[in-house]
Amino acid sequence: MASRLTEISLDCHDPDRLADFWTAALDWVVLEREPGLVEVGPARATDQALLDAVRSGPVPPTMFLAAVEEGKVVKNRMHLDLSPVDRSRDEEVERLLALGATRADVGQTGEESWVVMADPEGNEFCVLRSLAPGHFSL
């Protein structure tokens, strides 16, 4: 059996502020909170049910937001890609801007089908095409 991707860790200055952003952006919840560390993710069942699910196949990862002293200096080497499921890409970009995201320039040409954004602490992510009915079909 292979390993499973179970958590994504993101260093930041203010885990509580980023937890507010990411839970609203992804319709997630705060799973655990302690000073300097917040875990957010999809609402989940008991620990035993989660363990059984992880052992049987991939599950959505959670995100750990950990307080660190140093600031972000350069473009992220890895980033998240989001796909809206109930609205257009442009409507989702506007919603994320209202939550505190900003547009980010990482050298894109303007011809891309995605929009590069940054969370309130400058961590880049992309908003991809919409998967909503009427916007995406097979």
TrEMBL record:
InterPro entries per the UniProt record, alphabetical: Glyas_Bleomycin-R_OHBP_Dase (IPR029068), Glyoxalase_6 (IPR041581)
Gene3D superfamilies: 2,3-Dihydroxybiphenyl 1,2-Dioxygenase, domain 1
Domain named Glyoxalase-like: residues: 8-128
CDD domains the record matches: VOC
Name of the protein this chain belongs to: VOC family protein
